[in-house]
């Protein structure tokens, strides 16, 4: 199985990555990078009529330029259909990235993030298709999936119609750093938000006539922390983590606009994570109870209280594959063929794999050298990236 890995053209693989890193495509604006990937695949020999976009963008509740990019590569040997996936988008901090090579690293110019998350994945899948076709390697039927809006909520994978992928048996997702790490599970996330409508009054002349939405929010957060729902959460019936991310006003503005006015509106948004979906919901419910308590505490001179509207929804479900799952075994064998001791990992962050698993597709996430992601210090470790290309090729040709 290791012999096919030697066919990876390392220099060509780096050229593909540099080219894709230079194409902008922040989350929700993936059209240009999708077209660049499509063009690279056609140049590699993939028939144009085997490349298509789905209609997931019609179902995503945020403006999205295009659907997921799906590619069919006909099998040249028997075996179950394999899915290889990655995401097209980057975080907004990557806008205007100018990749450059420094030794064994690809870096940005220091003013933006680089976009190795997940241009490395895009390049790995292009290299995979190119190598299979150029060397006429035997392989089972393969589907490539390039999702949209992963960085803003895993939306492309969530809104995916699994039937569009064909009868895939298992999936390899490319979205990690260290080649030895195989991500076989991840936490689920529950999002919550609270809108607080208070009552304005002059904070100096008649503060008692006002109902401070800011104070209601502050007391709710204090109560959530006191009850053990903030930060690292450990209870008798489960464990997880939570955070308050946004405490502001309408449309991203501040909560309140003057110190001499009792704040009449506040908006708070946070998250809860856990390996157990029910416990993630329980954490969010803990915040709901905290806001209800705070709502009752802040009153005006007539005894009226603020009005709190609390909402929560599942961002993505948790999952965990067994070590004996066929895709986990297959992945371990690929790493071992390269002399790498596999390390199975459970992630505290969400991945497209969460939704792919929910769609009934067992998914392992492999790595391709992205590092210090979502920062201006982001870089790609080139040897690890090339190793990621080799791992993908071994996984694609294992049955042959």
3D structure, described in words:
This protein has helices at residues 10-21, 31-44, 56-59, 116-134, 155-158, 213-226, 277-297, 326-337, 352-358, 382-397; strands at 51-53, 69-73, 81-87, 100-102, 105-107, 142-147, 168-174, 181-186, 188-197, 231-235, 238-248, 265-274, 307-316, 319-320, 343-347, 363-366, 370-371, 379-381. By secondary structure, the protein is α+β, with helices and mostly antiparallel strands. The chain has a six-stranded mixed sheet with strand order 1-2-6-3-7-16, with helices on both faces. Strands 10-11-12-9-13 form a five-stranded antiparallel sheet, with helices on one face. The longest helix is centred in the last third of the chain and has 21 residues, at 277-297. The chain is elongated, with a radius of gyration of 24 Å. The mean pLDDT is 96.
Features:
400 residues; elongated; alpha+beta; 5-stranded antiparallel β-sheet; 10 helices
